[in-house]
């Protein structure tokens, strides 16, 4: 017994164990199992073993009171009670909290030792040679439950020594039966240990591989394969969790939507490989800016989203947005290609449970839309004013969808005058909407609503047909200018419908002029070029509207089939206050002359402005000085009285 106790003491010493177990993983075939995985695999077996032994010896304890008396009762009952208590305690507390393999081995060895002591004590009191076979079953139990060889070898070894020793002490020799029993025990224990261990390790290997594959599949499902950022699916899961934190009062966050400005032209000109490299670099820059304080994801295409955690101040939010935009604006070096883009950002704060995920996205998207329309490449925070505007937009949008637009939409015309020849050369067609529900709605409001909702292509075609119907009654020398939106240019179907409307009108295409803004053109430059070329091939004229209000550049104008430039009214407003405005207008006029382009100056309202423009030989003028927008039926009378009106206006000057 002294030998047994010393062996157990040596095995159970943590210091000795940690020395033997320097590696923290077990190699199984080509798979490395971590200690945590070993513990997870062994724990259910050790736990069940402790429970079974505890329950069994609870029954044995009761049986002792019926089968034993005197000293035998005291010794055997005490041992069985100790075995029951220790086994159940290991099951209920120790094994469940175990985090290391050696802790499970301690539990297994302790239960094995107590399990061993019971039959040893019984044999000491009531030796029965035939009952030594009990130790065979005991060794089998050790082999099946002792997953670690550090448990099986000492447990089975001590049992073998005990069987041999008892047989020798009581019989004076080792009988053939005892030797055969020892050999059988060794063979069976070894076989069972190998089989159980290999079966367990295969099961663990299969589980680890399955978990690894599941983890990889989960990563692929939650990650954007190009940039490595979380994808749209992952973003919505994180945002729902953030909203849950807001609902419980534990969290405040800002949602930001980002759209890249200028990505599409780079992708079209240099190809998708360069575009993909650019998106990867954008993802890296977003990660650097966000660091640990924000969650960044790619929503698709060139759209990204950020969740900024914490109730940051307005100044900190402004600083974060500025760093974000500055990072996106820095030059990109993409393997031989140098690119410059920017990013517009729309922020919305979530500090209460009044908004759903879709409502938050709607407000962030509105702030982003506002940024792209007014402050391209800058951050915009959703405000109460935006909330009011969005409600108005929603009302206008819903009313547009349910209205009789053919009856409620109309066209007004404003003349473009050649002040050299003293005659009107063209009329700009201006949309008007007199809603049966809302009354008269400003064009800038309902046009923006129609653009965002996608109704603009339908409205464009309807208004174009109305305008062309009026043009049929005009003199052959008078043209009409008609505005197209970015959505019209991006839609191949819309361009086909516009071209068909021109053909079906029977009007000479040279009398029809399509105006596009710089912003609409740069949204998708290549598509805009294709659409404008198609209309130009029919004979229609092309004009760039609001020149100077956006990204004015003659570098793209020479690539477009442009006939006319319209200088934005913002320059005219400054004519009388700033001498530089007149110089800028003169420069643009001179450039247009050199490029054989007409140049119309918009928004001229006073004679003083006209006098300034006369100094630089401005020829084509549009504005209230000559006429406000007029109804269709007023156009012909206006043209009939033009000669006398022109003379009067010039004499007044």
UniProtKB/TrEMBL annotation:
Residues 251-384 form the GGDEF domain. Pfam families: EAL, GGDEF. The chain crosses the membrane at residues 46-66, 72-94, 106-126, 132-153, 174-196. InterPro entries: Biofilm_reg_signaling (IPR052155), EAL_dom (IPR001633), EAL_sf (IPR035919), GGDEF_dom (IPR000160), Nucleotide_cyclase (IPR029787), Rev_trsase/Diguanyl_cyclase (IPR043128). The keyword Transmembrane applies. SUPFAM superfamilies: EAL domain-like, Nucleotide cyclase. CDD domains: EAL (cd01948), GGDEF (cd01949). PROSITE patterns: EAL (PS50883), GGDEF (PS50887). Residues 393-643 form the EAL domain. Keywords: Membrane, Transmembrane, Transmembrane helix. NCBIfam families: GGDEF. PANTHER family: BIOFILM ARCHITECTURE MAINTENANCE PROTEIN MBAA, DIGUANYLATE CYCLASE DGCP. This is Diguanylate cyclase. It comes from Asticcacaulis benevestitus DSM 16100 = ATCC BAA-896.
């Amino acid at each position: 017994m002294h030998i047994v106790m010393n062996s157990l003491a040596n095995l159970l010493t943590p210091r000795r164990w940690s020395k033997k177990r320097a590696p923290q993983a077990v190699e199984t075939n080509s798979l490395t199992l971590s200690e945590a995985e070993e513990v997870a695999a062994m724990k259910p077996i050790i736990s069940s073993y402790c429970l079974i032994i505890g329950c069994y010896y609870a029954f044995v304890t009761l049986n002792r009171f019926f089968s034993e008396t005197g000293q035998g009762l005291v010794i055997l009952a005490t041992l069985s009670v100790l075995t029951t208590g220790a086994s159940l305690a290991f099951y209920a507390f120790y094994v469940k909290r175990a985090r290391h393999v050696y802790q499970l081995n301690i539990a297994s060895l302790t239960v094995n030792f107590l399990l061993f002591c019971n039959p040893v004590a019984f044999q000491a009191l009531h030796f029965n040679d035939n009952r030594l076979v009990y130790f065979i079953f005991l060794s089998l139990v050790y082999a099946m439950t002792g997953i670690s060889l550090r448990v099986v070898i000492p447990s089975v070894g001590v049992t073998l020594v005990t069987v041999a020793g008892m047989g020798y002490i009581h019989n004076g020799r080792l009988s053939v039966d005892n030797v055969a029993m020892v050999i059988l025990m060794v063979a069976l224990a070894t076989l069972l240990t190998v089989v159980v261990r290999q079966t367990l390790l295969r099961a663990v290997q299969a589980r680890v591989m399955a978990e690894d594959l599941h983890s990889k599949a989960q990563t692929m499902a939650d990650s954007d394969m190009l940039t490595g950022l979380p994808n749209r699916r992952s973003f919505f899961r994180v945002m729902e969790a953030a909203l849950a934190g807001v609902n419980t009062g534990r969290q405040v966050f800002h949602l930001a939507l980002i759209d890249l400005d200028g990505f599409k032209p780079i992708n079209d000109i240099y190809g998708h490989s360069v575009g993909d490299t650019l998106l990867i670099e954008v993802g890296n820059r977003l990660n650097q800016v966000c660091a640990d304080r924000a969650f960044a994801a790619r929503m698709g295409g060139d759209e990204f989203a950020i969740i900024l955690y914490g109730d940051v101040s307005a100044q900190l939010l402004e600083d974060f947005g500025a760093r974000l935009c500055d990072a996106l604006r820095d030059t990109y070096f993409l393997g031989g290609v140098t690119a410059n883009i920017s990013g517009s950002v729309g922020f919305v704060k979530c500090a209460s449970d009044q908004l759903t995920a879709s409502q938050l996205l709607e407000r962030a998207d509105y702030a982003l839309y506002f940024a792209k329309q007014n402050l391209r490449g800058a951050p915009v925070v959703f405000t109460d004013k935006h909330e009011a505007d969005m409600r108005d937009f929603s009302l206008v949008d819903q009313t547009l969808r349910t209205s009789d637009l053919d009856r409620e939409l109309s066209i007004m015309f404003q003349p473009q005058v050649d002040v050299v020849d003293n005659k009107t050369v063209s009329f700009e067609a201006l949309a008007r909407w007199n809603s049966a529900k809302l009354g008269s709605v400003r064009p800038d409001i309902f046009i923006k609503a129609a653009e965002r909702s996608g109704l603009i292509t339908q409205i464009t075609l309807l208004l174009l047909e109305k305008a062309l119907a009026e043009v049929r009654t005009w003199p052959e020398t008078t043209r009409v200018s008609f505005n197209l939106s970015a959505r019209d240019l991006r839609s191949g179907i819309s361009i086909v419908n516009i071209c068909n409307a021109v053909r079906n009108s029977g009007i000479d295409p040279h009398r029809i002029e399509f105006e596009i803004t710089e912003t609409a053109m740069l949204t998708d430059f290549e598509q805009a070029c294709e659409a404008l070329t198609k209309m130009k091939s029919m004979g229609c004229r092309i004009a760039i509207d609001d020149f100077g209000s956006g990204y004015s550049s003659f570098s793209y104008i020479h690539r477009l089939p442009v006939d006319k430039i319209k200088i934005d009214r913002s320059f005219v407003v400054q004519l009388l206050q700033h001498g530089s405005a007149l110089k800028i207008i003169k420069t643009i006029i001179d450039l247009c002359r050199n490029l054989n382009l007409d140049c119309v100056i918009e928004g001229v309202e006073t004679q003083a402005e006209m006098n300034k423009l006369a100094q630089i030989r401005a020829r084509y003028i549009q504005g209230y000085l000559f006429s406000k927008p007029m109804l269709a039926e007023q156009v012909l009378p206006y043209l009939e009285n033009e000669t006398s009106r022109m003379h009067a206006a010039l004499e007044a000057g």
